[in-house]
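## retry 2 of 3
previous attempt timed out at serialization; input unchanged, resubmitting
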Amino acid sequence: MTSTKPRLLTGDTPTGKLHLGHWVGSLENRINLQDDYECFFILANMHAFTTRMDKPEDIRQNTIDIAIDYLSAGIDPKKSTIFIQSEVPAISELCFFFSMLIPYPRLMRNPTIKAEIRDKNLGDNYSFGFLLYPIGQVADILAFRPEIVPVGEDQIPHLEMTREVARRFNQVYCGVDQHLEDSEHLAAGGLLPIIAPLIGRVKRLVGTGGPNEQGQLLKMSKSLNNAILLSDDADTVRKKVMGMYTDPNRLKATDKGQVENNPLWIFHETFNPDKAWVSEAEDRYRNGAIGDVDCKKRLVEVLVELIEPIRTKRLDFENNLDYVLDVLRDGNERANAIADDTLHDTKEAMKQIF
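## retry succeeded, writing output
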């Protein structure tokens, strides 16, 4: 499989169906870039075991669910490769080699790891595999030697670790001068690209619920029950939007309301294409001239218009699982060809081809 296009890799850990936060964080970018990049999308099912090792059936179903979400949203298997992490053995072998290039204290400074431990109340009760996850993600990425990686803002620490590993590998095993700019590594004989992250148009979409104890709005998350899924039907979208947290100090429609830090208006600004209406309605909201209910009803219309075509396609794919599995098997084959080449080149650079 050869291509003259630059390569892109990203993906998801299968923890459930995708939601609007995934859409604006990365998914719409992936869809829009399919014609310009050779795209690889990984379903990182092995990573799901780091916090749910006792739920293998759920992980399998979640993996299929995300594959269906990808296809329903517009990922085209004729243009892009969707594959399953556990079906590409080279990734695990690369993970072992790359783990030698990251000191343990550096791993524990990863803010995403610290946040996961805090948010999931893990304390000291987490597996070695949980700590291996960031290195596994490094291997997921570098196995395909992409130029860009579209991600949400919370994944930036993992991508910075990927960049560190690539630099270190190129310096130790390829003789690249440590003072060279990242863009010069490949020309100087480096094997691994210093990848560039691509952040979605919304770095961190808030959920439909209220703030935490510190007054901060929480990001959209299925585990926090504040997510609108790309597979939700119109009635479900309506119920979630009508129950959305807004300005707690606004008790009636004629009260002046706060637009800033208000999920209702964050969603309108993010998803409503009628920017003139949004601007006018925000002014009216501030002045107590429009109620929450009217603004929520308009948001329901906007979100249903976005989600319903995806949901309809999803129903078709759910009824044709053989096709979905064929897409994944074809993707696994393509992904293995690329990752095996990277593994061979990596071992060759490390003098471990016998």
